[in-house]
Design brief:
Elements lengths: L2 E5 L2 E4 L4 E8 L7 E7 L6 E6 L6 E3 L7 E6 L4 E6 L8 E8 L9 E4 L3 E6 L1
Parallel strand pairs: 2-11
Antiparallel strand pairs: 1-3, 3-8, 4-5, 4-9, 5-6, 7-8, 9-10, 9-11
Length: 122
């Protein structure tokens, strides 16, 4: 049974930092690209970042580029999203997903985690 689990969310003040972690089990983790998505209340889910299975290709949305960094540790079946200079607009539930390619298109991902809440106060 494939399982992706997000952790590291929480409440942080504007300008602060958080690092999210996505761990996978039940799949050959190093075969999959991993994407991070978020959903704010009343809004559609949006792509935040994605990383290839070999860690050599990354993508970022315009809204987070330069503030967020995605990286992975295949030896421990983990992908991280380091988030700096957080803004209230970064608030939402953050999900990780496993898929075949690096993309911000959510329907291209095969497996999803349950999400972790990130709240940035002003």
């Amino acid at each position: 049974q494939v399982q992706l689990v997000e952790s590291g969310g929480g409440l942080v003040q504007s300008g602060g930092s958080l690092t999210l972690k996505c761990t996978g089990s039940g799949l050959r983790f190093n075969y999959y690209a991993i994407g991070w998505f978020r959903q704010a209340p009343g809004k559609d889910r949006e792509g935040v970042s994605s990383i290839s299975n070999t860690d050599d290709t990354t993508e970022y949305s315009d809204s987070v580029r330069g503030r967020f960094t995605i990286f992975r540790d295949n030896a421990n079946n983990a992908v991280y999203l380091q988030m700096n200079s957080l803004k209230p607009s970064d608030t939402g539930i953050y999900y990780c997903a496993a898929g075949q390619i690096v993309t911000m298109i959510s329907r291209r991902y095969d497996y999803w985690g349950q999400g972790t809440q990130v709240t940035v106060s002003s």
